Amino acid sequence: MPALVLLGAQWGDEGKGKATDLLGGSVDYVVRYQGGNNAGHTVVVGDQKYALHLLPSGILSPGCTPVIGNGVVVDPSVLLAELSGLNERGVDTSKLLISGNAHIITPYNVTVDKVTERFLGKRKIGTTGRGIGPTYADKINRVGIRVQDLYDESILQQKVEAALDVKNQMLTKLYNRRAIAADQVVEELLGYAGQLAPYVADTVLVLNEALEQDKVVLFEGGQGTLLDIDHGTYPFVTSSNPTAGGACTGSGVGPTKISRVIGILKAYTTRVGAGPFPTELFDEDGEALRRIGGERGVTTGRDRRCGWFDAVIARYATRVNGLTDFFLTKLDVLTGWEQIPVCVAYEIDGRRVEELPYSQTDFHHAKPVYETLPGWSEDITKAKSFSDLPKNAQNYVKALEEMSGAPISAIGVGPGRDETIEINSFL
Ligand code: GDP
Ligand code: IMO
Ligand code: MG
């Protein structure tokens, strides 16, 4: 059995953590391939709720090896705090593997994230302030610090000095901030080296050998398709590739090994931070979706912007990721609406447009064209099979499937592991 990718089909927070955890018991490895602790993945197991930021959701399945791939950016203090938090709750984290090539979010990257956002003022992206963008910028500028650098003090010192040479000019002269001392950064980073050492591995080799031995590898995306640096609503995006191709570059596993790409799709739409969002609601329906869906950020605690389902986006996600399946989440949240509008196309400057426009200007002008589907009032949280759903809920799912371009193979009807309707097996 080869590799599977599970990723967000919208703007993040689709329920990737729950879906990954659900499969975690049946796979050998769960791999994060991009992003960092900007992610907040919620997993509910029985009466226990876990909020994971950097650790792959497979960490909660005892038989599974969690892997932080080379494409991830790692804040060591956050990682160690997350590990000890789980250990205190009795979760064994000893199997974790971290790529030596993953880049480190240094304290100065976090500072730069915060000051640049402040400097942008009302043009800000609304980042999570976790240093994600500046760390990827350093990676691309070839002045990044990697996990392996923690194990060569002289190299680490040289690299931190090189990175700070430029940043301190910017911080002091442009942003009017104090310079950051390289020695202090090096000392802090070296302080993490010993604790991280047992986990550091050649994860490219480990994953490829595992695949040769027919082990099952699941890639868990952070963020979502529309937050992708290449394919998302640039510049209102994150600084990595959550889309399917990112699983290859972010792990060192070739595309020929990937047999299934599952898009996690919320039955409505949410977004955190700034940027265009055609189906966003500013009325009591939006408020109700936020309240019933518990739409508050796991990482930053910000209220999520809420709106109706957008089929244009779902079709786009199918295309750019080569999706084989969807996992539709949070269908239960829509219970109680008499009518549910679904965006089937956009109107842009008087024209009907069926596909996501590549032009940022057009997308900013896109107005949703809605079709309205009949709702249902019956509680669906106990449904175990598709036929247990009320007819109108079945029709809503079928309509979404038809509009979105890939089969819906599972449906979430509640946050718990067992609150899932499986239609086609993923494994
Ligand atoms: P992620 O970032 O994609 O992992 O998603 P988040 O954890 O940020 O947000 C999804 C939220 O929805 C979490 O609170 C989940 O526990 C919850 N959730 C996931 N699937 C379902 C579902 O089918 N129904 C309901 N009601 N909640 C769900
Ligand atoms: P999960 O994995 C939703 C958003 C931020 C901001 C933009 C850039 O839980 O789905 P960044 O800090 O990444 O530079 O911020 O991306 N963002 C997310 N939105 N879910 C996430 O992760 C997100 N991670 C980043 O709000 O708009
Ligand atoms: Mg989240």
TrEMBL record:
Question: A GO molecular function for this record?
Answer: adenylosuccinate synthase activity
Give the record's pathway.
Purine metabolism; AMP biosynthesis via de novo pathway; AMP from IMP: step 1/2
Annotated residues that bind substrate are located at 298-304
Q: Keywords of this protein's UniProt record, alphabetized?
A: Cytoplasm, GTP-binding, Ligase, Magnesium, Metal-binding, Nucleotide-binding, Purine biosynthesis
Instruction: Enumerate the cofactors the protein uses.
Output: Mg(2+)
Pfam families referenced in this protein's UniProt entry, alphabetically: Adenylsucc_synt
Protein name in UniProt? Adenylosuccinate synthetase
Q: Which organism is it from?
A: Streptomyces shenzhenensis
In the UniProt record, the gene name given for this protein reads purA
